[in-house]
Amino acid sequence: MQQQLMGVLPFLLVLVAFYFFLIRPQQKRQKERMRMLNSIKKGDKVVTIGGLHGSIVDLNDERVTLKVSDNTRLVFERSAINSVNNEENASSADVEEKKEKADNK
């Protein structure tokens, strides 16, 4: 019985390691992405997965309309949004950067 347990133990340890190093972080990123996609609203400045910058002028459950220039509006799937670049996000990033610089001095 103990030999069987010793034979299965390395396999179980590998499974636990896979969970904590691969599966769990991926689930956290996926939840954060879904939270970000659900919280976008009109006026938000976003970047698509293709690198296109624009501001949201219309959105529904499936699609987002971005204003890229004065005369150009493009329609994307909501899942094509890579990041939201609001002034709030930029200012908090600036504050964190200043804290890091102060800590390094």
Q: Can you offer a commentary on this structure?
A:
- The chain is 53% helix and 24% strand.
- With 105 residues, the chain is of the alpha+beta class.
- The protein folds into 2 domains: 1-39; 41-105, SH3 type barrels (Roll), CATH 2.30.30.
- Strands 4-3-2-1-5 form a 5-stranded antiparallel beta sheet, with helices on one face.
- The longest helix has 38 residues, at 2-39.
- The radius of gyration is 22 Å and the shape is elongated.
- The N and C termini lie far apart (59 Å).
- The mean pLDDT is 86.
Describe how the helices and strands are arranged.
Elements: H1 2-39, E1 45-48, E2 53-59, E3 63-67, E4 73-77, E5 81-84, H2 87-104
Antiparallel strand pairs: 1-2, 1-5, 2-3, 3-4
Summarize the structure.
By secondary structure, the chain is α+β, with helices and mostly antiparallel strands. It has helices at residues 2-39, 87-104; strands spanning 45-48, 53-59, 63-67, 73-77, 81-84.
Secondary-structure content class: alpha+beta
* N/C terminus separation: 59 Å
Low-confidence stretches: none
Tally of alpha and pi helices: 2
Protein name: Preprotein translocase subunit YajC
Main location: membrane
Biased composition (Basic and acidic residues): 95-105
Membrane topology: Single-pass membrane protein
Identify the notable features of this structure and list them briefly.
53% helix, alpha+beta, 2 domains, elongated, Preprotein_translocase_YajC, SH3 type barrels, 105 residues, 5-stranded antiparallel beta sheet
